[in-house]
């Protein structure tokens, strides 16, 4: 720190001071502040003032807090009222200047003092040493330069007679100029006259505000009235309350009290102390600084202190709540740790890692784990014991062991090998489907003869709504196997089948491993739905991934990417469903036993509706036999005129629609029981969609019956022959098409048949 010249007393009047613009909080009298300057022009000015034993500055608050400049361009950028401060300590850091200043009194800006700076030219002397063969350039001081005259700093007050724009005689301009007299061109007479009067003609436009002329600002006279005494006492009480809540305010209070004066007895200093202790906005603090009425200033300071007190109370409340919460958590943690130690000493509980290892070994104790899987388990458990419980690798290994020990190694569910019970269960759930029922009974018979459970891969294909998915659940119930279903329709990721690699975050095994963990048995029935709609994307081909799983020769050692150990799937009964077999890849179709599920005829639909669909619709609608009766004629009309598709899903929707409308009538008490027949069926389901196809009871001559394929199961056609002229044969070809053209010829016109055929 630079040593400042000793100043006995701070002068009462000091009209010209350098201006230092600060942000955020103004400096109140009797307070010390640390200021760091980086502007080179301002730093040079402060250095000169300190050397001249004039360590005084004016501290003013900037109006715009976003303005980070240390030197303002206009007096309007700062508030006019600030503080006169003395520089107590200077620390010169080269490109920065650090000042410790103490404010003394309020001042007000009267006018800007303009200065004229000219850049000093450097002068050098060249010294030559012949013996050393060396040349050195030595800089010369300005005073020692021959033929150079120095003009001292010059300040001139601009008289209001000379400059008409200045209204008061107390405003000043300051002009600092230096340079070589011989390098300056000869000034004109008018410029010389202007320079003699202190007016800088060229350099003052756009000059930053560095020096200002100020006046001391004193507060208005006041008397120690009862109101001022009450305000003073309330201020002191509030300050004590704030200090008791937050001890950090004691340092600011010590800065005011170390001067040796009684602040309590002085309302002027007390109001400044109250405002300086608060963290209010800069505008509110500036308002206190500018207020000259002591009564109003005390009220402003008291209002800011009350806000600060409420803020301190809220801060203390939040801190108390956080501290209480932390104490509870810390206390709970300590008690848990003590409980662990006590249980460990008594032998009631082992270490966390020992307990985890014991849990995993307990899981596989009753299972028949293959040797290669047991080796992997021992290796992973040994690695787990050396890992830190907070490391990421610990959680990865723990999740892996969770999956590996949760699989049903050697655990199978007892199968139902009774043919009579299986037939009973299958007939209860579904009508017809003789091919599928016979195949399942054959499967049971083979298992009964071999004495062991076996796996198989079946594929049911047929139109929608014929019961492919529901028969699979019925088969699982008949075989007493656990049932698991997942759909591969639209699947594009191989990881859904084969699992993710263990190195990925959030990795999981494939669907079949999840199935074994959920069913807890090695011989579940797995339904792979919509196998003909499997997708293919940039993440692989899931249809190719199914080849290993659905191959009886390979699935005994199925390798999942996550587990990375062989898993036996040979005891799993796989059932796949599809609507169209053409879209199934040939290698996949070759591995499955295809069973066709054709559509139902009208008699089968009628039986299914009476035995299954109508009772289920009545249960879902809350109806019973006392509310509704659907005649067979109504069901037959519904099947023939409304629901001609191969399956019974649309028939089920129409029966549910009838049940809902009957329930609505019953609730509205329009009728207690409704008999649905073919005559009133249109009231519930609307007009028939399909009409009767027979146009002729007895086909007339020239008309024959034909059959056509449609999506609804087929239809009949009446084909009529007619006599036509030879010229019309080409017209028939155009209208009907080439496919029907040969049939456009009739036997009565022999000479034209060769044109058509």
Automatic annotation (TrEMBL):
Gene Ontology cellular component list: mitochondrial matrix
Compositional bias segments (type: Low complexity): 187-196
Record's keyword terms, sorted: ATP-binding, DNA-binding, Hydrolase, Mitochondrion, Nucleotide-binding, Protease, Serine protease, Transit peptide
InterPro entries given in the database record: AAA+_ATPase, ATPase_AAA_core, Lon_bac/euk-typ, Lon_lid, Lon_proteolytic, Lon_Prtase, Lon_prtase_N, Lon_prtase_N_sf
SMART domains: AAA, LON
Catalytic activity: Hydrolysis of proteins in presence of ATP
Any Pfam family the entry gives: Lon_C
One GO BP annotation of this record: mitochondrion organization
EC number: 3.4.21.53
Domain of life: Eukaryota
Location of the region described as Disordered in the Swiss-Prot/TrEMBL record: 140-196
Stretches assigned to the Lon N-terminal domain: 17-309
Binding-site residues, ATP: 462-469
Basic and acidic residues composition-biased segments: 177-186
Enzyme class: hydrolase
An annotated Gene Ontology molecular function: single-stranded DNA binding
Name this protein carries in UniProt: endopeptidase La
Organism: Fopius arisanus
């Amino acid at each position: 720190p630079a040593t400042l010249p000793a100043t006995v007393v701070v002068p009462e009047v000091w009209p010209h001071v350098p201006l230092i613009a600060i942000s955020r909080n103004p400096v109140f009298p009797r307070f010390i502040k640390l200021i760091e300057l980086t502007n080179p022009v301002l730093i040079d000015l402060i250095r000169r003032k300190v050397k001249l034993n004039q360590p005084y500055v004016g501290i003013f608050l900037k109006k715009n807090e976003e303005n980070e400049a240390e030197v303002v361009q206009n007096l309007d950028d700062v508030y006019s009222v600030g503080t006169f401060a003395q520089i107590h300590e200077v620390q010169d850091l080269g490109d920065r200047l650090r000042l410790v200043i103490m404010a003394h009194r309020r001042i007000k800006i009267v006018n800007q003092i303009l200065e004229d700076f000219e850049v000093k030219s450097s002068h050098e002397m060249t010294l030559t040493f012949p013996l050393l063969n060396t040349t050195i350039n030595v800089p010369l001081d300005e005073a020692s330069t021959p033929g150079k005259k120095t003009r001292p700093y010059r300040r001139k007050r601009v008289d209001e007679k000379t400059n008409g724009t200045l209204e008061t005689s107390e405003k000043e301009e300051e002009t600092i100029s230096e340079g070589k007299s011989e390098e300056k061109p000869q000034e004109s007479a008018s410029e010389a006259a202007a320079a003699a009067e202190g007016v800088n003609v060229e350099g003052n436009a756009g000059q930053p505000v560095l020096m200002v002329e100020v006046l001391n600002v004193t507060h208005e006279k006041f008397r120690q009235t009862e109101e001022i005494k009450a305000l003073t006492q309330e201020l002191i009480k509030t300050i004590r309350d704030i200090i008791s809540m937050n001890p950090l305010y004691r340092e600011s209070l010590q800065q005011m009290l170390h001067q040796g004066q009684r602040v309590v007895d002085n309302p002027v200093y007390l109001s400044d102390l109250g405002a300086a202790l608060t963290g209010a906005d800069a505008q509110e603090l500036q308002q206190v600084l500018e207020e000259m009425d002591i009564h109003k200033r005390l009220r402003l300071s008291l209002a800011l202190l009350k806000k600060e007190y409420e803020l301190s109370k809220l801060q203390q409340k939040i801190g108390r709540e956080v501290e209480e919460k932390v104490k509870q958590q810390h206390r709970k943690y300590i008690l848990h740790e003590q409980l662990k130690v006590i249980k460990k000493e008594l032998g009631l509980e082992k270490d966390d890692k020992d307990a985890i290892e014991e849990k995993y070994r307990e899981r596989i104790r009753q299972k028949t784990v293959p040797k290669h899987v047991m080796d992997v388990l021992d290796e992973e458990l040994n690695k787990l014991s050396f890992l830190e419980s907070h490391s990421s690798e610990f959680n990865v290994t723990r999740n892996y062991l969770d999956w590996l020990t949760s699989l049903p190694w050697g655990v199978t569910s007892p199968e139902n090998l009774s043919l009579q019970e299986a037939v009973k269960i299958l007939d209860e759930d579904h009508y017809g489907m003789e091919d599928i029922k016979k195949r399942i009974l054959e499967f049971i018979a083979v298992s009964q003869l071999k004495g062991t459970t076996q796996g198989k891969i079946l594929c049911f294909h047929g139109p929608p709504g014929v019961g492919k998915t529901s028969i699979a659940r019925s088969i699982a119930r008949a075989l007493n196997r656990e049932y698991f279903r997942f759909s591969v329709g639209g699947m594009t990721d191989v990881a859904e089948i084969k699992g993710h690699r263990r190195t990925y975050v959030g990795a999981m095994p494939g669907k079949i491993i999840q199935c074994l963990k959920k069913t807890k048995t090695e011989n579940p029935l797995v339904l792979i739905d919509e196998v003909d709609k499997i997708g293919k994307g940039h993440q692989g081909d899931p249809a190719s991934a199914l080849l290993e799983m659905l191959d009886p020769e390979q699935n005994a050692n199925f390798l999942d990417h996550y587990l990375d150990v062989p898993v036996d799937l040979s005891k799993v009964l796989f059932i796949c469903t599809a609507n169209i077999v053409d879209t199934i890849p040939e290698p996949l179709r070759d591995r499955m036993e295809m069973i066709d599920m054709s559509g139902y005829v009208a008699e089968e639909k009628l039986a299914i509706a009476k035995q299954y669909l109508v009772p289920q619709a009545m249960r879902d609608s809350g109806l019973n036999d006392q509310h509704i009766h659907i005649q067979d004629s109504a069901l037959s009309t519904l099947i023939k005129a409304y629901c001609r598709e191969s399956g019974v899903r649309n028939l089920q929707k129409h029966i549910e629609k009838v049940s809902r409308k009957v329930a609505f009538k019953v609730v509205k008490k329009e009728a207690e029981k409704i008999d649905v027949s073919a005559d009133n069926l249109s009231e519930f389901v609307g007009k028939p969609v399909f009409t009767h196809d027979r146009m002729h009871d007895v086909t007339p001559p020239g008309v024959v019956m034909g059959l056509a394929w449609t999506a609804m199961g087929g239809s009949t056609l009446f084909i009529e022959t007619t006599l036509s002229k030879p010229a019309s044969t080409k017209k028939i070809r155009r209208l009907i098409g080439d496919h029907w053209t040969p049939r456009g010829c009739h036997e009565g016109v022999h000479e034209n048949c060769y044109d058509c055929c």
